[in-house]
Amino acid sequence: MCGIVGYIGPKNTLPILLEGLSRMEYRGYDSAGVALISNGTLLVRKRAGKVADLAKKIQGDGQLPECHVGMGHTRWATHGEPNDVNAHPHTDCKNEIAVIHNGIIENYLAIKTKLQREGHHFSSETDTEAVAHLIEDLYKQTHDLFEAVQLALQEVTGTYGLVVVSTHEPDKIIAARMGSPLILGVGDGENIVAADASAIIQHTRQVVYLEDGEVAEITREGFRTSTIHGAKVKDKRVHEITFELSQIERGGYDHFMMKEINEQPETIRNAMRGRLLVEQGNIKLGGLEHVKDKIFNAKRIILVGCGTSWHAGLVGEYMLEHIAKVPTEVEYASEFRYRNPIITKDDVVFLLSQSGETADTLAALREAKSKGATVLGIVNVVGSTIARESQGGVYIHAGPEIGVASTKAFTSQVTVLAQIAVMAARAKGMTETDAKVLTKELDSLPQKVARVLQDSHLLKKLAQEFKDARNFLYLGRGANFPVALEGALKLKEISYIHAEGYPAAEMKHGPIALIDENMPVVCIVPKDAIYEKVISNVQEVRARRGRIIAIANEDDTEIAKMTEFVVRVPRTYGFFGPIINVIPLQLLSYYIAVARGTNVDQPRNLAKSVTVE
Ligand code: G6P
User: Fold this and answer.
1) What is the pLDDT of residues 465-521, one digit of tens each?
2) Would you state the CATH architecture of domain 455-601?
3) Which of 41, 46, 178 is nearest to 105 (CA)?
4) What dotted CATH number matches 247-454?
5) Quick one: pLDDT at residue 534?
């Protein structure tokens, strides 16, 4: 949510900012802006729309001079509609201090009202602008930018990843963090600060993570940090970014989402690499070694996440309860944190998050930790806040996921949860022979997923057939109920068609009223233990002339007689089915969105990483 980048160094800054912003555009894309310092003057350019629109505006206005310090922002609006004025950066009255911000300043109205009374002139409806004026006010007292920012932040409540530049002290950038990620890229004679590593990797692989409550002063030569209250911060460790530039590029695909869907055989394999001991019928998860006993003896496992990660948690619940026999609950992070949940030290809480930065999930982590539970992350982004604040965990190693609609992260999260289930089952007495059946099946999943991907042309045809539908229903039972939810979510997110996922049998308690000859109904009907039950539900839809698209196994000879369309998928062990069955649903929503001409990778109103509550 909101991309942030700042650069100081010998290179021409504007192209670096625009390049960084376009790499981070998946974080927010309703407006964008830059601020540069040139010969003691602050140059601010901003624009509603995409980074490309901003670049065009800058070109149209006449090229900006070469500058060596500046910052840029791509916005996901919270306060004030996305327009040119509300776009960041925001400046003080004299256009001497500029601020970009990711997060929410909760007490901005009080600050704004006070400053307006004192004569400050505000131009935008944003919360962020209040910070620019507050720094202006405090700079008059301190004549020190770093200190003025510190003092300002002492008055602010809320969350921020914040970057400030000023003509008062043109040879530095000030950055601060509270709840919204900021990473410092440490270069040779140049430094860069950004909300995520994708804007940094082209310049340096050496990064330093800012912590909550930390302020940094960044110059060409280096940086120093302290807390907002002026306390020293212990030596900052330099980490190395591990992914490659090619991983954040489209690699010949029209969209990141399609690239990521197609990466799944590989990403599912990566989630098991070095962990799946096929012949021993066991699993080794290094990041959980030291808390293994906690997991095996847990009275309860709680899986917490948002969006697609929450759906992965729902699949995890089926697997952990069925395979490992551990009572498991799944919670929306946003509900969990405010419910004052009853948590004990015997609970193990897994936080599921692709980005590792989702504000609600992070807050849930802190809530569970404060109550004594063991908190563990299942996270994709290495070094992200949830990963760092967890007491252990498992990286899903899916590589950067750029498409806003999550695909490969889901299958990798479920793959990791499946492995945790098998590992716990073994510890709790599952025989090697029984476990081997499961580890072999896990091992075969990448190749089965690849088979589904080979048949994607059928989904393309179906998309043509159904692209104008106004509603969709998705039905599944057992572990495939969350797949129905995920299929519906994917369609909503990128094609803007209303869709609902339902447990197939629950349909008759309401949604059945919607079914007529125009209603597409996607039924997930693998040949598992509850096949016959789901078939009864399929018949109920058929009797009301719903247009059924069945996701069924290759060896199901009956299904085609009952449904208008059948998409075939390989058979697997029932509880691992979601990893395969979700693939055609991802493809269907992708092709429908393409057929409708929507922006697949950056659907309206959404953001990839939601760092506000
Ligand atoms: C946003 C994204 C979703 C994602 C959810 C949770 O809503 O658009 O794709 O599933 O956040 O994100 P996380 O990074 O915590 O998995």
Assistant:
1) 999 999 999 999 999 999 999 999 999 999 999 999 999 999 989 999 999 999 999
2) 3-Layer(aba) Sandwich (3.40)
3) 178
4) 3.40.50.10490
5) 94
Contact present, 256 and 601 (Cβ < 8 Å)? yes
CA of 303 from ligand 1 middle (Å) equals 15
- Residue 159 CA, ligand 1 centroid: distance in Å: 18
Residue corresponding to tokens 């944190």: 337
35 strand-pairing partners: 44, 71
Which distant-in-sequence residues (6+ apart) come within 8 Å of 175 by Cβ? 6, 161, 162, 163, 164, 182, 184, 193, 210, 215, 216, 218
From the candidates 2, 67, 306, 523, give the one annotated as an active-site residue.
Answer: 2
Identify whether 306 is a catalytic site residue: no
Q: Do domains 247-454 and 455-601 have the same CATH topology?
A: yes
Does 608 participate in catalysis according to the annotation?
A: yes
Fold exhibited by the domain 3-241:
Glutamine Phosphoribosylpyrophosphate, subunit 1, domain 1 (3.60.20)
Which pTM value belongs to this model? 0.90
Domain boundaries, the chain: 3-241, 247-454, 455-601
Among residues 596, 260, 608, the alpha carbon closest in space to that of 412 is found at 260
Label residue 144 by pLDDT band (50, 70, 90): very high
Mutate to test the pocket of ligand 1, among 309, 486, 490, 600 (most ligand atoms within 8 A of CB): 309
Ligand 1: list residues with CB < 6 Å.
306-309, 353-355, 358, 361, 404-406, 606, 608-610
